[in-house]
Amino acid sequence: MTTLRLAIAATLTLALAGAAHAEAARPTPKARPDTAPAATPVPSPDADLAYGAYQRGYYMTAFALATKRIEDKNDPASMTLLGQLYAEGLGIAQDDVRAAEWYKLAADRGDREAMFALAMFRIVGRGGDKNRDEAAKLFAAAAKLGHAASAYNLALLYMEGQQFPQDFARAAELLRQAANAGNPEAQYALATLHKEGRGVKKDEREAARLLGAAALAGNLDAQVEYAIALYNGAGIAKDEAAACELLKKAARRGSPIAQNRLARVLATGRGLPVNAVEAVKWHIVSKAAGASDPWLDDFMQQQPNETRRAAEKQARPWLTLIAASRR
What we know:
CATH topology of the domain at 1-125: Serine Threonine Protein Phosphatase 5, Tetratricopeptide repeat
Number of strands: 0
Order of helices and strands: HHHHHHHHHHHHHHHH
Largest sheet: none
């Protein structure tokens, strides 16, 4: 199973836009512990203003509005926002310890975004020691509140079998929850389980459906596998032309597998017209990225010198990028 892993960027996925204010923030407000925690915080007009300022890049304004909301209402969503600002160092000095403190205050009051953010901190050891057991509990709590990314990450822990006994059926349930909520990583992972018949019944059609959804959402691995399914007619009507268009997109995004498959298509003319220069170019690129192919090695050696030289010239920028990525 490829590319099924915990996301290690331990920050909330919040849209960022605009330029940050240069001034630094001073207040360090504390939540009142005597306030009853909210199970599912309801966004308030003030909280919306703070998040709006954050999204526009007015980080100090966001900090001030969130701070006031906490002082007035002990608002968990605003605590989560302060955690995010400290985690990323936006408008204030970056401080993982303080970020974790705010995330915990919000998580203890039922904010599922804070639960997820704190879980990611615990996975990688930001703002404190690594604690995968605590991370798993936080993922589980957030997943119960409908947080798709938490359900996905919890499913990966069940597949990994360290925090819990390995359980692909439970993992599939969690992936289904996240996939139904539109999480493309979960759609791809669940498709893989359906292809292999692990935790769910083997079902090529369902796998293809999920791959198509994830591919449409931009998941690179799903784009590659959905293209291959289309090309071969596996679980879906065969469509070589559509498959090749998707392979081209994935190849340009840097997938060595897509680059290799595209090279073969261009060499054989199945789905696209034969183009020896492009075929050799993509073979050179994919091979440099680790996708070896003896058949394409032979194909390249059979080409005239001018074809190989043209392909090598076109491949050069890609080879530079691959070399730079390994430094």
